[in-house]
Specification:
19 strands; ATP-binding; 6-stranded mixed sheet; ABC_transporter-like_CS; 24% helix; 362 residues; 2 domains; cell inner membrane; binds adenosine-5'-triphosphate; alpha+beta; Rossmann fold
């Protein structure tokens, strides 16, 4: 499979040609993926792209219409939930409100023949791991959202599953708690080494937590890669637009090095991947647009600043560039801005570095 993280070593989880139909509607289309042991994978995509559907199939909560799943060398395609090896955390904490923290965490241990003492010990161990020692006798209603989600995590890990599934576990929490828990989950996962799949529609969450991101759109996988690969080498315009910001302009490839947009030509390294006269979408990230000197004289265009937006550590300016019908966004750090003294209405030279230009076929 093309998506193997460590070619040579046997993958821990393999999905082969998974399709899922709901009546006539196809929610997943030919999904193939391999995941190595210990990896932290994020399924990232907009609402309705099929990420939860795929997670539910991996858990066995739904059965795929066709395709196979293998986990730790065994075919789990048709295995019932109870015989699969995973722990799961949902967006809504889904703790039992009438059970104490200890009973919530130990829930899955009851039917595994653990003695009361073993359960107590395991609960204490897990509470220490998530930083909530001493809360055994509390009830979910006495805990904050973030604490409840940590308990849900402890419950999912209680049986030491080989696979941890997280379905938007942070999205019900406020921004501060979310950022904090993001770090906690990440370091806990690294410490335990448990293979983890997290569903999220939040690009920042995926970029900061994942070893590899699976970007999904309308039931298909658009790209699988490390956060750096997804960001700096997006495989499609969809990925470029969904992860980070990108300016898009229609253009035509002239030859191996040259691109035509809006009546002007630009040098572009990616042109060699296309045949002459190919109609393309040209893209550049706002932070790659240079508002100050750059050696790439060939790709210098004249623009007018129409708007400036302060975004904390950087300024996003909107530029009207001669020959382009759409405005171009350019980000500049506040440090650089100090020396440049840019104002709305100002005309300036803008460089679009040849090595920073992306080309997409649609
Ligand atoms: P969200 O973040 O909104 O949950 P998602 O990417 O997780 O989005 P899914 O929940 O996997 O998306 O849904 C994928 C598509 O399948 C959607 O169009 C959804 O309406 C449809 N779908 C999901 N479950 C069912 C079902 N049981 N019956 C019919 N259609 C369904």
């Amino acid at each position: 499979l093309p998506t193997d993280a460590h070619p040579g070593s046997a993958p821990y989880l393999t999905l082969r040609h998974i399709d899922q139909f709901f009546g006539q509607f196809q929610a997943l289309k030919d999904i193939s993926l391999s995941i190595s042991e210990g990896e932290f994978i994020c399924f990232l995509g907009p609402s309705g792209c099929g990420k939860t559907t795929l997670l539910r199939i991996i858990a066995g909560l739904d059965c795929q219409s066709s395709g196979e799943l293998h986990q730790a060398g065994r075919d789990i395609s048709l295995l019932p939930v109870s015989e699969r090896d995973f722990g799961i955390v949902f967006q809504s904490y889904a703790l039992f409100p009438n059970l104490s923290v200890a009973d919530n965490i130990a829930y899955g241990l009851h039917n595994r023949g653990a003695t009361a003492q073993q359960r107590q010990q395991r609960v204490a161990e897990l509470l220490a791991t998530i930083g909530l020692s001493g809360s055994e006798h509390k009830y979910p209603a006495q805990l904050s959202g973030g604490q409840q989600q940590r308990i849900a995590l402890a419950r999912a890990l209680a049986t030491s599953p080989g696979l941890l599934l997280l379905d938007e576990p942070l999205s019900a929490l406020d921004a501060r708690v979310r950022a904090h828990l993001r770090n906690e989950i990440k370091s806990l996962q690294a410490k335990l080494g448990v293979t983890t799949i997290m569903v999220t529609h939040d690009q920042e969450e995926a970029l900061t937590m994942a070893d590899r991101i699976v970007v999904m759109n309308a039931g298909v996988i658009e790209q699988v890669g490390t956060p750096q690969e997804i960001y700096s080498q997006p495989a499609s315009a969809f990925v470029a637009d969904f992860v980070g910001q990108m300016n898009f302009v229609s253009g035509e490839v002239l030859d191996q090095h040259t691109l035509k947009i809006g009546g002007r030509t630009l040098h572009c390294h990616k042109c060699r991947d296309f045949s002459p006269h190919a109609q393309v979408r040209f893209g550049i990230r706002p932070e790659d647009v240079r508002l100050r000197g750059h050696q790439d004289e060939a790709n210098r265009v004249r623009g007018t600043v129409t708007q400036m937006e302060f975004l904390g550590s950087f300024m996003r300016s909107r530029l009207q560039v001669d020959g382009l019908d759409a405005p171009l966004l350019a980000d500049i750090s506040m440090n650089e801005l100090r020396d440049l003294n840019i104002r709305p209405g100002q005309q300036l030279d803008v460089t679009l570095p040849a090595e920073r230009l992306h080309l997409f076929s649609h």
